[in-house]
């Protein structure tokens, strides 16, 4: 599974930053429709079954056997906080369009769902490890963070404007996202799933670099060692040539 290769005939000049691509459009529509149902059922009808069974709660997955939750939680957002879904969907559109143009709709959707699933699995593991099995997690942040990481890794030199003001290369966005997650963890910021964010970032980075595959890791390490060995050989050859020339007399 590779997400780095561009589609046929695709080059960077052909990529459009602001285009609303098909997969992202339908993800936005689906999230908006689900959120409207949440608002009606939870805030007006006072029925919480939808969130109870579709959001991610480790104790409901195991031993509750609601095994769909690691995939469905990413389509749910807090019904009392519209900014939750707005920020996630804005980030998805802002940084996902170039990825979808490079991979195509199916490739992007596969990346989005897979990183969201991996992020959910990390949330499950964190819940069991830190004894927070009854803590509920919902939202697309894990998959969106993976998209942001993917954007920074694939287009590291692309100039963007942070907060619409500060110009920077996209690679610095990766450092900002990682740094923000670390600060949120150290500050014990409430209402933020550090496990989901970290899981999404790790999933995006592993899929893009190929380091999820042991064979790819082995090949990368071999290439690194070979390059180092070649540099040593080149240096030895250069030193030997200098020695053969002897002193220069003027």
Briefly summarize what is shown.
The chain is mainly alpha-helical and 250 residues long. 65% of the residues lie in helices and 3% in strands.
Explain this structure.
- The protein is mainly alpha-helical.
- The chain contains 10 helices and 2 strands.
- It has a two-stranded antiparallel ribbon with strand order 1-2.
- Helix 5 packs parallel to helix 7, helix 7 runs antiparallel to helix 8 and helix 7 packs parallel to helix 9.
- The longest helix has 32 residues.
- It is elongated.
In terms of DSSP E residues, the strand content is under 5%
Beta strands, count: 2
The helix content is: 55-70%
| Global mean pLDDT | 85
Features:
single chain, 250 residues, mainly alpha, 10 helices, 2 strands, 3% strand
Topology (elements, then pairings):
Elements: H1 22-44, H2 49-54, H3 58-61, H4 69-72, H5 82-103, H6 105-129, H7 141-154, E1 159-162, E2 166-169, H8 170-186, H9 194-209, H10 214-245
Antiparallel strand pairs: 1-2
Helix pairs in contact: 1-5, 5-6, 5-7, 6-7, 6-9, 7-8, 7-9, 8-9
């Amino acid at each position: 599974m590779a997400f780095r290769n561009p589609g046929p005939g695709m080059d960077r000049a052909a990529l459009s930053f602001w285009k609303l691509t098909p997969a992202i459009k339908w993800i936005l529509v689906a999230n908006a429709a689900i959120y409207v149902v949440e608002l009606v059922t939870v805030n007006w009808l006072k029925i919480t079954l939808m969130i109870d069974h579709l959001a991610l709660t480790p104790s409901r997955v195991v031993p509750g056997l609601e095994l769909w939750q690691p995939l469905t939680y990413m389509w749910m957002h807090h019904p009392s906080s519209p900014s939750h879904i707005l920020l996630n969907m804005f980030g998805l559109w802002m940084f996902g369009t170039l990825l979808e143009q490079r991979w195509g709709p199916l490739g992007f959707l596969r990346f989005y769902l897979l990183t969201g699933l991996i992020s959910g699995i990390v949330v499950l593991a964190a819940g069991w490890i830190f004894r927070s099995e009854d803590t509920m997690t919902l939202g697309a942040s894990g998959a969106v963070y993976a998209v942001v990481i993917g954007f920074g890794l694939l287009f590291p030199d692309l100039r963007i404007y942070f907060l619409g003001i500060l110009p920077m290369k996209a690679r610095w966005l990766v450092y900002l996202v990682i740094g923000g997650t670390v600060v949120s963890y150290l500050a014990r910021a409430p209402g933020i799933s550090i496990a989901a964010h970290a899981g999404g970032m790790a999933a995006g980075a592993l899929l893009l670099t190929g380091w999820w595959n042991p064979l790819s890791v082995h090949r990368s390490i071999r290439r690194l060692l070979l390059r180092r060995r070649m540099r040593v050989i080149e240096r030895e050859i250069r030193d030997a040539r200098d020695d053969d020339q002897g002193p220069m007399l003027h």
